Amino acid sequence: MPTSTIGRRVADLALADSQMHLGVSDLARRAATSIRTISRIFPVETGLTFKAWRQRARIALAIDQLSAGRAISQAAADVGFGSTAAFSFAFRQVTKMTPTTFLHNLSMLVVPPT
Asked: Which pTM value belongs to this model?
């Protein structure tokens, strides 16, 4: 997460907009800043461009949903992906595994009660 007040404000607005209805210009306006400030702040404070940070944040939200038992297609839709294929591609870019592999690995970690 960014550390500055403006960066946090933009991040909070972006996280609240998990389906990506707001573009960067809308987020900048709502955060009372400029696109240029966002493009300067995020790499300095997070090591990622705003676009890359937002993509990772969406995948992190999806991971929470998948871990809670949500179906891949529903988690994809919930975080604003237009298709399961697009979600799988983005998920693999961020995690180096497919959502199905993630769920398989998760099921291997869950020990049934005895």
From this structure: 0.84
